[in-house]
Design brief:
Strand content: under 5%
Shape: elongated
Number of strands: 0
Largest sheet: none
Helix content: 55-70%
Order of helices and strands: HHHHHHHHHH
Number of domains: 2
Oligomer: single chain
Amino acid sequence: MAQRGQRPAGLLPELTGWLTYDSLVRTHGWSGSAPATDEEAIARILDAAGKAIDTKGADFSIADVARALGVTRQTVYRYFPSTEALLVAAAVHAASGFLDRLAAHLQGITDPADAVAEAVATALEWLPKDNHLGLLIAAGRPNPHAESVTSDVALDFAHSMVRRFDVDWAGMGFTDADLDELAEHLLRIIQSFVIDPGRPPRRGDGLRDYLRRWVGAAISPSGAAISSARTRRSHRR
């Protein structure tokens, strides 16, 4: 029998190394507390990514996240294939808090034109200051995410935003299809201001007046009725 601290006779060096590594991963990986499910692993990765973004902004890396979790980079790559994918996922993870704040800000605004104008203006003011979502639409520098404004991730964000307005959309005749189109339209408006804020950029009351006149004015029950009638005609064809 091998003495304590000695390798058993005949045990291959490679196997000994693997056992040592496996023991370290199980004991020290994930800071000594491995996640029970993939969902828990993803949540912990996103939390760590969020903290890394708070510290380093867009300069964070997969290595930073792995180091904070006490795992290898390969473990993080198992769930997120690139730093960019993790950045987008972390931004979406943080979106609920942003939407909660926006909904609270818009509370009591029941007129759809006013709600749309205030929501877009406030989003344009808040997003560049948001450590997470702001990275996706930072103005004044090239951004690969700006072109994906109608991606599933962006549309989900806009759908949630529109449906949190303190507006009785159904009572005014707006259908789910109408709100889907409105969400897309507002994303396109936000994107255009991010890419080119104007010369000089509109801000404050000037921005809100512009949005109310040229964007909000198009949001009316009559417009919803026209959209619904077109939808019914297209279904009859």
